[in-house]
């Protein structure tokens, strides 16, 4: 996927995309002479989303673009002087405009890494006030991106490896920025394409689409067709497939342009509607003429990428048969159709019956399987992760799914809940306590490793102090639960990966996890541990910082 920093985030992303209190804290640090103290913050999550056991880290590209351009402008300073920091010492604004990201060190999991609770997604080091100013912006860039990427990965697990997944959520997203973020990170999470043309331009994501019900409704009879012919395929013989299932730019106009560019004489158009009607008569179909006219018109414009929406009137009595007539006619003149889309009804049942109609027509027309092979069945209609699991359990004949609302809005869980916590200041480890043990932060500057077993599956993610030697293959390492004294195990790793160097793709990591960690119902928690030294430091600071109550 192409990455363009200018396109990766909206015009709102800058130093002022932060919370009021970040600026007031920065001023207090500066006024107190602490702004430049070396600090380390961890960005991590405590609870995996969607009642699962993993999260796909995303948003790093946007974070790095933000940091590369980080600088307070004169307009930013003028706004702060007029409101948030109206009473601040003028010298503070000179310090503020001099801030540059070169003072920072960022260590992060690569984009698309499968991550687990408490393991830092990013570790940001630098002057205290500067790092503090980044907190809100880093969280807003990582939280939703990671949530969408995780949601996409879970949909991929539910649909299986073979199905094509298409993101159709632009019109349902939470505003333009939410739509662009969702399109980008659904692709990172394992989707194959998007309906969002702007996202396609920005990041090179394949764009896909059919037509709307309104297109079919615009035709009342075959008399609505302007012409009854179709452009002859350029550079191929009739019946040889017409260039396969090419992309959405394969229409008649595009073919004509290609012929002109090649300097070749343009072959005359060939009859098309008569072929369609002859096929309908041969198959004995009694279908709606207006819908058939719409399909013919669309095929005339896009003969190399014809995919019809078949449920405007009656899916099995008219829509699928009309698709079959037009698709078979395309094959007859040398093009390859793409398929049909179901957008309502019992998708499992309709997909199987549609496949049955395709098989029967293919046999009746003597096409030798060409019609069936060319015709993908695409399903949409408010599909969710649970819908995909249900369809798999019922059995279906769907080849691709168009998924919108439940993907881009993350309807099953609207936020992720990453946090940004101070873990080291001026050389001293820091811990954040809580009445809830799960919210205790793990102190110190850390390294993280993924330890694999002899069968090649990951066993545990181990956090250790950055100064500790890394675990070694074949050497037992004591892995402690961060907070539970008695929970520990010895792991003899067959392979060790430093998480901040991992470069595997999302799909490879998700499918590599044992099924008990990725199943949708009651997944087994994945082990996240700390080294003995980090365990000792955590509990030492825990006891030192926890108040000792006196009861009387």
TrEMBL record:
Enzyme type, top EC level: ligase
UniProt pathway annotation: Cofactor biosynthesis; NAD(+) biosynthesis; nicotinate D-ribonucleotide from nicotinate: step 1/1
Mod. after translation: Transiently phosphorylated on a His residue during the reaction cycle. Phosphorylation strongly increases the affinity for substrates and increases the rate of nicotinate D-ribonucleotide production. Dephosphorylation regenerates the low-affinity form of the enzyme, leading to product release.
Domain of life from the UniProt record: Eukaryota
Protein's name according to its UniProt entry: Nicotinate phosphoribosyltransferase
InterPro entries for this protein: Aldolase_TIM, NAPRTase_C, NAPRTase_N, Nic_PRibTrfase-Fam, Nic_PRibTrfase_pncB, Nicotinate_pribotase-like_C
Organismal lineage: Eukaryota, Rhodophyta, Bangiophyceae, Bangiales, Bangiaceae
GO biological process, one term: NAD+ biosynthetic process via the salvage pathway
Keyword Phosphoprotein: yes
Pfam families linked: NAPRTase_C, NAPRTase_N
Domain Nicotinate phosphoribosyltransferase N-terminal intervals: 16-143
Record key words, sorted: Ligase, Phosphoprotein, Pyridine nucleotide biosynthesis, Transferase
EC number(s) given by UniProt: 6.3.4.21
Family according to the record: Belongs to the NAPRTase family.
Database matches in SUPFAM superfamilies: Nicotinate/Quinolinate PRTase C-terminal domain-like (SSF51690), Nicotinate/Quinolinate PRTase N-terminal domain-like (SSF54675)
Role: Catalyzes the first step in the biosynthesis of NAD from nicotinic acid, the ATP-dependent synthesis of beta-nicotinate D-ribonucleotide from nicotinate and 5-phospho-D-ribose 1-phosphate. Helps prevent cellular oxidative stress via its role in NAD biosynthesis.
Claim: Phosphoprotein is one of the keywords in the record: yes
